[in-house]
Write a structure and sequence with these properties.
single chain; about 160 residues; mainly beta; Elongation Factor Tu (Ef-tu), domain 3; four-stranded antiparallel beta sheet; two-stranded antiparallel ribbon; 2 helices
């Protein structure tokens, strides 16, 4: 095959695929729920109000700290700054998974999927579309099949 920009590995449920086969959009159905994985839009270095939705401090009476995060730690106890404290820093440009989006239309001739919902990333970026993990309806009869039996409850039920 000719060199590609990205090489990805996909898990297929028991399907026979040979090396060099193309994976097309025909494996998705209209109305199916999918997860879309991509890299979110980069926002650069942002302050705590935009990055963590802090509400800010007073704007009057001589206040000079309007958009800062305020006090971040104590003196003697605990004598350190806790992890994951909201501070200014780089925002966006990270791997994001948007779950349970609905497939509106499948255009096999154009190799296009129309998906309803927010797809992560800027226009023209690469995304990965997979069958939804959480939103799928459970098959009938699968609620009890293969479920491990608790021996203590089974012994009490047998009395």
């Amino acid at each position: 095959m000719t060199p590609k920009r990205f090489v990805r590995e996909f898990i297929l449920n028991g399907e026979e695929v040979k090396q060099g086969d193309n994976l097309s959009v025909d494996r998705f159905k209209v109305g199916q729920l999918v997860d879309v994985i991509g890299v979110s839009k980069g926002k650069g270095f942002q302050g705590p109000m935009k990055k963590h939705n802090f509400h800010g401090q007073g704007a009057a009476h001589g206040s000079k700290t309007h958009r800062r995060n305020g006090a971040i730690g104590c003196r003697s106890t605990p004598g350190r700054i806790y992890k994951n404290h909201g501070m200014a820093g780089h925002m966006g440009d990270e791997r994001v998974t948007v779950q349970n989006l609905r497939v509106v239309q499948v255009r096999e001739a154009d190799h296009v999927l129309l998906i309803s919902g927010a797809v992560p990333g800027p226009a023209g970026s690469y995304v990965e579309v997979r069958t939804a993990i959480k939103g799928q309806p459970k098959p009938k009869g699968a609620a009890t099949a293969g479920k491990p039996v608790n021996p203590m409850k089974a012994a009490k039920a047998g009395k």
